[in-house]
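Students often ask why we bother predicting the structure of a whole assembly rather than each chain alone. The short answer is interfaces. A chain on its own may look different once its partners are present, and contacts between molecules only exist in the joint model. In this exercise we take two input lines together and write out one structure for the complete complex. Read the inputs first and try to guess which parts will touch.
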Amino acid sequence: STVVLVFEAPSSFKFNVTAGQKIKMGEALGQI
Amino acid sequence: LADSWNNTETKWYPIPVALGLGVIGAIQYRRVRQREENKLEKPKYVANGPWQVHVAAALPLRSMSRLWGTFNSLTIPEALRPMGYKLYSWFFGCNLDEMKNPDLYAYPNLSAFFYRELKEGVRPIADATLVSPSDGKVLHFGVVQGENIEQIKGVTYNLDALLGNDDKSSIPVGDAILGNSLEIVDEEEFANVNGIEYSLEDMIIKGHAVKTESPVGPDGLVRSEKTDPKVEKALVKLADVTPDITNVKVKPGNAMFFCVVYLAPGDYHRFHSPTNWVVQTRRHFAGELFSVSPYFVKLLQNLFVLNERVALLGKWKHGFFSMIPVGATNVGSIKINFDEALKTNQKEDIPLGTYTEVTYKSASKVLGGKALRYGDEMGGFYLG
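Now the answer. The structure tokens for the assembled complex follow.
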């Protein structure tokens, strides 16, 4: 199963994850 | 011609009853035929790709998924449960220390164990703009280029196809009947979300609606004793944000982003709200149930627009926001906690390639949908 997020955000939004990285619920995905 | 037109006598006759019945019968026959044709499933996706894709496309994946779910719902003899679940956990890397109920005898079958809850506090919510909605692996993320989302390097799928904005075959159902998780008595009264009472103003921050006894901060946020300071900090003027979810266009200075999180078999399979947002619409797409493992994602183009999925569309403080749980062969059923009407992976489902749509307007007149906060449990995936 997969969860896809699609969202509008200011262009300054940065993901602070890497592709393939394991992540837990509640951990930061991105920041403005 | 003119002479005929002007001088031919017109005689009027009553239409024979048999002819009238015949016309009505023909209309009815055509209507029934169209209805039956609509019930037929669209032909399966004709796969393009290596032999693995052709093999998968030829399999009755939806039936297999339901069979898998039925099998895993069979009650396991109590004596075998601890051993069976420990073996499963060892194989798929589950952390049994995080379980809310550590008694392995309490899970009657693998489906119940698979949908296990976690202890309070084992998943702290980070102080970030966006947090992960679930445990898993980040498959891909980035900026939506034009109308396309990159599935893997060089392979894209269409944003409108994913969300249903290009599909004219929607079946609007109407307003969803929500559960008791959110009850709005009055717009100026209190809402009850997950057992926590708080003012609607805490969520919507309407300056003109602020009660005189509520202290208002310099940023316009209403301070409430019952609001978590962390949540309060992130509160937004959601009522003022009105993105057009049927025609997604970003505002100047903004961009459209995407992120794909893959949940492996051993992972905690519930998903939570990744931010403070309002869900306005749900679109349930009937589709295939291909595997969504990273291996298959690389093999099959447009995988995420082929599979059965539930697109939750709404808004957050920066504009449009959506979350799309996508089903897979082994976990074909998607549950949304606040939408009891939603039934996925059904035998008699809507035709493949179409979707049903409901709105959550009844949840809140002001917000226009179901309000969610960071970390609120939204639903999850069931086996089969």
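Check your guess against this: Residues 8 and 23 of chain A are 22 Å apart (CA to CA).
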